[in-house]
Design a protein that fits this description.
heterotrimer, A: mainly alpha, two-stranded antiparallel sheet, C: mainly alpha, 66% helix, elongated
């Protein structure tokens, strides 16, 4: 089908889809008129039941914990899929770099200075977000993404990169796997100590607003942060093939 | 609904349209960063700080970086193929 | 203002689809898919919003103040991170497709070769 024919078909079907969407949206409650009971109940029981002041993290890791676990496994599987897809195709010539090559990206001094200045605060902010997930806005997902961003800044700022061919960096893989396994183990601990999988009450109650409160939700946040940051770093490392980094191999 | 939310909604719609209607993937990558940050501001205006934090990290850093890496790898393959 | 909010969500969906149909570059298709996904986030958060309510962080506010729905926010925030990793898988597919077919044009990737 030629491109213009495709555009015409799309225009017609988009008009139909827009009409259907308008009809469907007309049945939704008007903006600002939320009247569901589930949200209100959660907002009322978050502090008395679990001493968690961040209702969103409480929902994600306690009330709907299995949902979050499955989404974390999607992240895990996606990282593995990206690594598997970027393998050599059959018939492609072998990469002729020596294993253990150390390559450094050729960036301008301005980028390197900014990067060096920003890496420290970024990592600290990421760890802060992960640790305070149950208390203030933050959590494992947010902190994990910021931590991976810190690793990207590190590489962009001229950090030395040792990329073994055909394998993601070992530390990133360990962190990635430890995060995913940690989540399941914490869920099993809930099963063993408190009677339900992913129950978070076994680790004590604590005072709302202190760092060590809300049962095992902070621990779940740490596991999630490790897993998400590990997955993103594994994916980024797999994309950084050796012929892409500037050709400045040095023997280490 | 406040004026801030209305302005941000219009900004998000405009940024999304720009991303979808640009041809060059490199420019689209940069516009994705802008679109991501405007989405994060909209989420803040909707009283959703957690979602805004995720969106800043993903739409501002992770997504443009991955797109740029994919584009660079494609260009490296093209250069290697032209050399042979 | 209901029309504006839901209208922007619907507009993002349709304009993202138009970008996918119109694009001549597979990586552009992946980027426009991200735009379509963002429309769902806007819709979810719009449904959970209560006028005059505060963010669902219960630290300093007295019990009983109306807060925005936390459930849709929990759904959306995990969804944002999952979108990033799935986009990475699609980009890896696009890179490998370029290796096999020699071009990034979707119209050139038509024949399946064994």
């Amino acid at each position: 089908m030629t491109r213009s024919a495709r555009m015409v078909v799309f225009a017609v079907s988009a008009a139909g889809l827009a009409t259907l969407m308008a009809v469907a949206f007309a049945g939704l409650p008007s903006f600002g008129d939320y009247s569901g009971r589930y949200g209100r109940i959660i907002a009322q029981i978050a502090i008395p039941d679990r001493a968690a002041t961040n209702a969103v993290t409480f929902t994600a890791f306690d009330v709907r914990g299995v949902d979050t676990m499955v989404e974390e496994f999607i992240v895990f599987a996606a990282a593995i899929a990206a690594v598997a897809l970027l393998r050599h195709l059959r018939g492609e010539p072998e990469r002729e770099a020596r294993p253990g090559d150390v390559l450094r990206p050729l960036t301008s001094p301005a980028v390197r200075v900014m990067g060096a200045a920003l890496v420290g605060p970024t990592v600290v902010i990421a760890l802060n977000l992960v640790a305070h997930g149950a208390i203030t806005p933050g959590g494992g997902f947010q902190g994990g993404v910021v931590l991976a961003a810190g690793a990207v800044i590190l590489v962009a700022a001229g950090g030395r990169v040792r990329l073994p061919p055909d394998e993601p960096p070992l530390l990133a893989e360990i962190v990635h796997g430890a995060g995913a396994a940690g989540f399941v183990l914490l869920g099993l601990a809930g099963l063993v100590f408190a009677g339900a999988f992913l129950d978070t009450t076994w680790a004590g109650h604590g005072t709302p607003g202190m760092l060590l409160s809300a049962g095992s939700i902070p621990l779940l946040n740490v596991a999630t942060g490790l897993e998400v940051s590990g997955a993103l770093i594994v994916i980024a490392a797999e994309f950084l093939e050796q012929e892409m980094l500037a050709m400045e191999p040095e023997s280490s | 609904m406040t004026a801030v939310q209305a302005v941000l909604l219009v900004l998000v719609a405009a940024a999304g349209s720009l991303v979808a209607l640009t041809r060059d993937p490199l420019r689209q990558a940069m516009l994705t960063g802008v679109f991501g940050i405007s989405l994060a501001l909209l989420f803040l205006a909707f009283q959703a700080p957690d979602v805004a934090l995720s969106q800043i990290g993903v739409g501002g850093v992770a997504l443009p970086v991955m797109i740029l890496l994919a584009l660079a790898e494609v260009r490296a393959h093209e250069r290697k193929r032209d050399d042979e | 203002m209901t029309v504006l909010t839901y209208g922007v969500a619907g507009w993002l969906f349709l304009v993202g689809l138009a970008g996918i149909v119109r694009s001549n570059n597979v990586i552009g298709v992946v980027i426009c898919l991200g735009v379509v996904q963002s429309s769902t986030y806007v819709l979810l958060l719009a449904i959970g919003y209560r006028t005059g309510a505060k963010a669902p962080i219960l630290a300093d506010i007295p019990t009983g103040t109306p807060v925005v729905d936390p459930v849709v926010q929990a759904l959306t925030l995990t969804d944002v991170v999952v979108e990033a990793t799935v986009t990475a898988v699609l980009l890896a597919l696009a890179v490998q497709a370029h290796k096999r077919f020699g071009s990034l044009d979707p119209d050139a990737m038509t024949r399946m070769r064994g």
